[in-house]
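Researcher: We plan to redesign the surface later, but first we want a full-length starting point. Tokens attached.
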């Protein structure tokens, strides 16, 4: 091995160490949201503060900088690894270790406070911690640097290269196009509701979702599913991917679509190329692209008639008394029902992006100092009335419904909308490149699409920026045209 080779080998060892440490942080965070005893909340906050501090120290270590300066990559993948690590390191060099540790601790406090506030439907139990998280995120944004728009600095962590100046026109133009479409569909007589007045056994729901996972291609020997207040995906490694879902006895849809959504994330995590494991390339280029995978499986595939022509008989067998006499057409109509609902994670495709616009506008106002935390609930309720035509009856179906602000994740919400747009474009490309794709889905042969996505998206890891990768696969970058076309087709507009 040459001197240059040995330098890169030393750098690779550092990359692997950082990836391992990140995995342990992910595992501790997953446990915090699933099985952690309530009395352990403070201890876990301290543990995460220590771990996040250690990760930051290792990342900004001058010796790592020397290795990055002196190592010579042997191929394009190694160059990409070095670039991604350099980008992350340069960003974190600007943030004091004290701030990293304090953020980790207050994030843990925020999660515990949010859970209690949501259960009690009382914002007073959460808003003081949220106010502190907002202060810390402003400090972080200023440390990272920006051109007058703090949101840009935080958005960079989730959607590298995206800026408010480009983002908001995309979101607001999308909302303007969707509003009349929502009005047109909701003016029609609503489809039948086959779930009204019925109870769906939680354990039967659980068994059905556990059966869906291997059918989708999620490897249960390299991952697992559990239950949480808010569905999410986490884990430590492509061979240890953790999903969660939530169950509502009144309807099986939240559990089913929660599982399909998180399985989309899980398939991405399990699909990174083995040579990239324990390196910076075993990552999505952006959360928008990651969300494209969950939204593609949840909505484009999971709400299609073809998908349910195969899986609905199994659901009927799981609930013979509740759904045995309900036709496939009635069920698919209910799955695709458009209504002005309050809960984002249960919203239909057509109204979902309006929820994202609501949250993004509020985040911007908070960071700009135009809105104070004490006024957040009233601002939320007013925007909900304007954008969704509904006003929450209590905070749990309004400002407290999402988990993201409990950890100060300002800048994450827009990635859901970007993911919807990317998902539609990727599926349109798959249809062009895979003749008979929809027939295969109707036969339950989901591997056709999954393997295409694995080759085109998952295995690419973080070689390219998100929009560059989408352009490579579809022939064009970020656009709402494919998404709007799919909505017009599905809802006969």
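Model: Full-length starting sequence:
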């Amino acid at each position: 091995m040459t001197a240059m080779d040995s330098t890169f080998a030393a750098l690779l060892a550092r990359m692997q160490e950082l990836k391992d440490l990140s995995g342990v942080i992910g595992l501790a965070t997953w446990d915090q949201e699933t099985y952690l005893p309530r009395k352990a909340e403070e201890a876990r906050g301290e543990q995460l503060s220590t771990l996040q501090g250690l990760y930051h120290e290792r990342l900004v270590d001058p010796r790592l900088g020397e290795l990055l300066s002196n190592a010579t990559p042997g191929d394009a993948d190694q160059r990409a690894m070095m670039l991604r690590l350099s980008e992350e390191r340069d960003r974190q060099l600007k943030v004091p270790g004290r701030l990293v540790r304090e953020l980790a601790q207050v994030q843990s406090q925020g999660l515990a406070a949010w859970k209690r506030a949501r259960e009690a439907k009382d914002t007073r139990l959460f808003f003081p911690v949220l106010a502190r998280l907002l202060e810390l995120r402003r400090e972080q944004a200023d440390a990272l640097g920006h051109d007058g728009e703090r949101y840009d600095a935080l958005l960079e962590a989730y959607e590298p290269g995206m800026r408010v100046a480009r983002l908001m026109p995309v979101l607001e133009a999308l909302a303007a196009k969707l509003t009349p479409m929502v009005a047109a569909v909701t003016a029609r007589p609503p489809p039948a509701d086959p779930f009204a007045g019925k109870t769906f056994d939680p354990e039967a729901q659980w068994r059905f979702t556990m059966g869906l996972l291997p059918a989708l291609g999620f490897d249960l020997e390299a991952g697992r599913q559990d239950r949480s207040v808010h569905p999410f995906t986490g884990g430590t490694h492509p061979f240890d991917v953790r999903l969660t879902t939530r169950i509502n006895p009144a309807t099986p849809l939240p559990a089913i679509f929660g599982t399909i959504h998180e399985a989309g994330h899980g398939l991405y995590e399990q699909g990174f190329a083995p040579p990239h494991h324990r390196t910076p390339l075993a990552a999505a280029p952006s959360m928008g692209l990651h969300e494209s995978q969950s939204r593609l499986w949840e909505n484009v595939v999971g709400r299609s008639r073809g998908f349910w022509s195969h899986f609905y008989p199994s659901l009927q067998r799981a609930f013979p008394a509740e759904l045995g006499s309900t036709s496939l057409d009635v069920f698919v109509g209910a799955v695709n029902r458009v209504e002005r609902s309050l809960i984002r994670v249960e919203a239909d495709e057509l109204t979902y992006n309006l929820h994202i616009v609501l949250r993004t506008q509020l985040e911007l106002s908070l960071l700009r100092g135009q809105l104070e935390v004490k006024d957040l609930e009233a601002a939320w309720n007013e925007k909900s009335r304007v954008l969704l035509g509904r006003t929450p009856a209590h905070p749990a179906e309004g400002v407290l419904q999402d988990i993201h602000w409990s950890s100060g994740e300002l800048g994450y919400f827009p990635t859901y909308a970007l993911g919807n747009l990317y998902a539609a474009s990727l599926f349109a490309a798959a249809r062009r490149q895979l003749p008979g794709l929809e027939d295969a889905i109707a036969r339950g042969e989901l591997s056709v699409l999954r393997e295409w996505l694995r080759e085109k998206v998952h295995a690419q890891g973080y070689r390219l920026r998100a929009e560059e990768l989408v352009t490579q696969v579809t022939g064009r970058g970020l656009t709402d045209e494919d998404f709007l076309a799919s909505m017009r087709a599905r809802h006969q507009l």
